[in-house]
Amino acid sequence: MAALTCTTCRRPFEGRPNRRYCSTVCRRQREAKRRAWDNLTRTAARLRQRAEVATDPRQREHLERQAARFLSRRPEGGQPEEVPT
Ligand SMILES: [Zn+2]
């Protein structure tokens, strides 16, 4: 048994070295954030694609602003490849 730190709540816990979460609640929380992160990233990418092909510059600017807003709403701790400490 090793002293580990939960990736979600940062509390120390004991477990196998490959465990990242102290509980199912923490694992689910991370999965939910991960899903939200992915959805917002995907939506922003779609908006940027539409911005790229937009002929009206004001429409393009609007789409880019929308994309940036979606990216800024991504939850902390939802990004992929979060390295456990
Ligand atoms: Zn936890």
Structure description:
- With 85 residues, this protein is mainly α.
- It has one domain.
- It is 54% helix and 9% strand.
- It has 2 helices and 2 strands; from the N terminus they run ββαα.
- It has helices at residues 24-53, 57-72; strands spanning 2-5, 12-15.
- It has a two-stranded antiparallel sheet with strand order 1-2.
- A hairpin with a 6-residue loop joins β1 (2-5) and β2.
- α1 packs antiparallel against α2 (57-72).
- The chain starts with a strand and ends in a 13-residue tail after the last helix.
- The chain binds zinc ion (ZN).
Task: Tell me the series of helices and strands, N- to C-terminal.
Answer: EEHH
Strand order of the largest sheet: 1-2
Count of runs of 4 or more consecutive helical residues: 2
How is the main sheet built? 2 strands, antiparallel
Short description:
By secondary structure, the chain is mainly α. About 55% of the residues lie in helices and about 10% in strands.
Q: Keywords, please?
A:
rod-shaped; mainly alpha; binds zinc ion
Layout of secondary structure:
Layout: E1 2-5, E2 12-15, H1 24-53, H2 57-72
Helix pairs in contact: 1-2
The structure holds zinc ion.
